Amino acid sequence: MTINIHEQKILILDFGSQYTQLIARRVREAGVYCEIHHYSMTEADFRAFSPRGVIFSGSPESANLALSPRAPAYILHSSLPILGICYGMQTMAEQLGGKVEGSSRSEFGHAKVEIIGSNPLLYALEHASTEAGRTLQNVWMSHGDKVTKMPDGFRVIAATESAPIAAMADESRRMYGLQFHPEVTHTAAGQEILNRFVHEICGCERLWTPANIVTDAIATIRRQVGSDKVLLGLSGGVDSSVVAALLHKAIGAQLTCVFVDNGLLRLHEGDQVMATFAQNMGVKVIRADAENLFLGKLSGISDPEAKRKIIGNVFIEIFDAQAGKLGKVPWLAQGTIYPDVIESAQSKYGNAHVIKSHHNVGGLPEHMKMGLVEPLRELFKDEVRRIGVELGLPYDMVYRHPFPGPGLGVRILGEVKKEYCEVLRQADAIFLEELRRADWYHKVSQAFVVFLPVKSVGVVGDARRYAWVLALRAVETIDFMTARWAHLPYELLERVSNRIINEIPSVSRVSYDISSKPPATIEWE
Ligand code: XMP
């Protein structure tokens, strides 16, 4: 019998918190499928989704204002278990007859809550510390307002000095509110609290596992495409690599991948992609060597957005030409992942920003009208990686840093030239090699070298050297929306700088980028 891994699921009602995706990732880690929907979701959509429980997210809004976002009555009175987090708890309290007040002291950061009494959500948690005879849990708080009067039927289940109602429960209605954030790792028992909500209170089983996701995806792909052929643009990045492995397992020789070598890849990258997929796994991969075409079109162009557009368009041209040779292929596979889906849904509500036009295989020519196969649409990046490992892809490929679609094209400032690409490739390989050697590669989220088209004077031996300047960039981030520059050890930076200047004669100077995002972005262009 096949398991339906989507049957027992949780709805996450989004009020606009920066942590909403984190809540969803924690629920998935508990082995339960969940989806994020806007708080204004329709009753028909809610009934069709049919969750076993609902989590209300936080929000930057104030729950004590009349026009604040509210949970729809058909969800609040659905008799399903509900967990309100921060604003989610406050709006639940307000809507059920309690009271929320702004406070002069906002609470942000680490806090200690005292658990009061026993209840299905917060009983006997480990990770507790004791102070003056009281048992306390370390949690993460981030709020200004707080609940000052609970609705009828609720009781206090946790308190802090400044928030006497830090958590509340009405066990008969299976409704719970937490002023603190269980989804954030600083809340020591956070995952355990969410596990209890989804497993014990909502009764969901642990069906959302990498092995089950793979089995389910294979069955879905086979159902969708039957015996048709499928085309995939393979970039060597994590998402398209996992799609390739998944489709290969599902439909074998019906899959053809096109790998476009645009001359803007990292050192040996093209050969590695061919070795992994074509040689080791037996995937049908067509390699299109198009360095000259890309560099020709980029010649004389220095505006970053113009470069992105050219790279995107040439990619599509080549992809189209290669696909044309295959005869009729009705399906195009893409590595769209769940955050892309959330972002495009959010743009309907007007809260998505375009700072850089990210290049994707989106704008295919009219005549290529193909159906889309998007087997990662429901998955977060960490889930994509886990199923990549499950499918047997090499660890280093699955856990590598992200690489932008336009590649080195946006890491060479201004005009792109072959000579610059070659210098950058060598320097980048040295930087990454030293990061791995010093065990720093996986401690940073993304690291690379940037080519600055300026020359600077140096001295090597007795000779004056007038040569290029490079910048090293390494950042730590969770979501790539904000990032901190990585505090790499000086010895490591020194080794990288020495090696680059000694091994690449056309470089005279290496600098380290200490800008965080915002206000800087991660890439320089
Ligand atoms: P920024 O520079 O916007 O980068 O702070 C955030 C993340 O996005 C990647 N990035 C891109 N990815 N096409 C892509 O596929 C692009 O044009 C592009 N620009 C930036 C960047 O590498 C970082 O991970």
What would the principal axes of the Cα set say about the shape?
globular
Helix content: 25-40%
Oligomer: single chain
Biggest pleated-sheet summary: 10 strands, mixed
Strands in their spatial order, largest beta sheet? 2-1-3-4-12-11-10-6-8-7
Average pLDDT number? 93
**Which cofactors or ions or other ligands sit in this model?**
xanthosine-5'-monophosphate
Low-confidence stretches: 352-356
Distance between the termini: 52 Å
Report the portion of residues in β strands: 15-25%
Question: Care to count the β-strands?
Answer: 21
Classify the secondary structure makeup into a structural class.
Answer: alpha/beta
Q: Any idea what the radius of gyration is?
A: 26 Å
In DSSP terms (H or I, runs of 4 or more residues), the helix count works out at 15
Structure description:
The protein is of the alpha/beta class and 525 residues long. It has 15 helices and 21 strands. The chain has helices spanning 20-29, 43-49, 73-76, 87-95, 190-201, 210-225, 238-251, 269-280, 291-298, 304-324, 338-347, 381-390, 395-398, 418-437, 490-503; strands at 9-14, 33-38, 53-56, 82-85, 99-101, 107-115, 128-131, 134-143, 146-149, 155-159, 167-170, 175-178, 230-233, 255-261, 284-289, 331-333, 371-373, 446-460, 463-476, 484-485, 507-512. Helix 14 runs antiparallel to helix 15 (490-503). It starts with 8 loop residues before the first strand and ends in a 13-residue tail after the last strand. It binds xanthosine-5'-monophosphate. The site of xanthosine-5'-monophosphate (XMP) has 16 residues, from loops. The site of xanthosine-5'-monophosphate has 16 residues, from loops.
